[in-house]
Write a structure and sequence with these properties.
Helices cover about 35% and strands about 20% of the residues. The protein is built from ten helices and nine strands. InterPro entries: GP_PDE_dom, PLC-like_Pdiesterase_TIM-brl.
Amino acid sequence: MNNLCVAHRGFSGKAPENTRAAIQMAMDEPFVEWLEIDVQMTRDGVPVVIHDFSVDRTTTGRGKVKDLTWQEIRKMDAGIWKGRQFAGEQIPSLDEVLQLVKGRLKVNIELKTSGNMYPGLEEKVLACVETHDMLSDIVLTSFEPKALVTAKELEPKVRTGLIIDSHPRNLLSRLKRMKCTFLSIGYSHLDAAFAADLVKNGITPMAWTVDDPKVMRSLARMNPEIMICTNRPDTWGQIFMSKLGQKISFWRRIWRGWA
């Protein structure tokens, strides 16, 4: 089974997305090897892990992330909306997340931006990644091509990937021009021929967001290199993990802890 499981915003099917609880729950599944998170920046320049441009949906606060300070965001409850058992969860900083997962999970960091919404976001994120010595363990992705180009200019060795929910004819050539080696794509736009073409050209495809067992099986049949991004890693595990696979994944995780 090569279709790696990517925990979308952590184990967001059960825990509040993009929180330590969701990330820890994903890490508790022995077969999860990748985490996908969203990063924005506070008014005072702290990279924080949250999906929406405002805090309204997932916290007890109000306002746009870019207009709030780190201390203001820190006071908000980011867990109670998902259930009382998650009361007190906070929006984590990127630094906290990388510290938590280092040596255990690789990370798909989405630069959640549009146009010039967050000047300096790429530099701040890369600085955080380098502080934790995790350049080889991350990929920077974004819907915003300019963010990916800027990241490559700042650090040519960083892996980058476009996020897209369509399949224009020139997509492969666009990826090559941008020097992307990763593609995050809505699963309905993938087929076997396109997946094979991507892999042949050194580009790793990740399908999102896949919670349906039938779709997971279909993607696996298309190509073993398609990464499956899901809110429900447990569903992935029920489909793909044999007892032997569980043992291999367990000992692989132990080895990583020793390395």
